[in-house]
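User: Hey, quick favor. My workstation is busy. Could you predict this chain's structure for me?
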Amino acid sequence: MVLGEILEALITSITSITVALIAAGFFKRFSDRNKENNSKKKLVKQIEKDELVHFTLKEIRRKFHADRIYLIQFHNGGTFYTNAPMQKASVTYERCSDGLERVSDHLMHIFVSHYTWFIKNTIDEEMFYIDCEQIEDVATKALFRKFGTQATASVPIYDNSDQLISIMVLDWVFSEIPDAFIKDGDFTLQFKEEMTADSESVGNLIN
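Assistant: No problem, here it is.
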């Protein structure tokens, strides 16, 4: 009788362990499947957002008859030996006229310290040049020369906490700036206000 009880308890234990293992395997597969589905959902959501940003930039470029429009976004880029963070920037979105070289192929993980003048002037809403040869800063002028830019306009993009997260840039390479956007050798106030408003719309998409 004792032996029978022992066998019954043993069988019950083995059955419980087997059921537990099967259940654990099921829940793991269920969890893995959920993670995979969530990953796909996030990827699809990101792709949809990217498409919307690209479409919006394309429309802005056409609106101002520019040859190139792109976003420079700021990000962390590792740390120095002192553990101080590296501040870097990359071109993350770009729309160009057919046949025009893409700046995003070259401007990735650039140290912010290389272009402080450009960034500061953009923040101060002074980065509007109908002739890039008038740019005072050597590094900034050389950058635009490298890509054949004749005229340029840049505006800052802030997040909801009023932190600078991106810069939107318009370039004219071989196209002429429409007369409606120029007055007394400078971009008109209306152009600057419209470009700023458009950049805020783009900011809402990337925030």
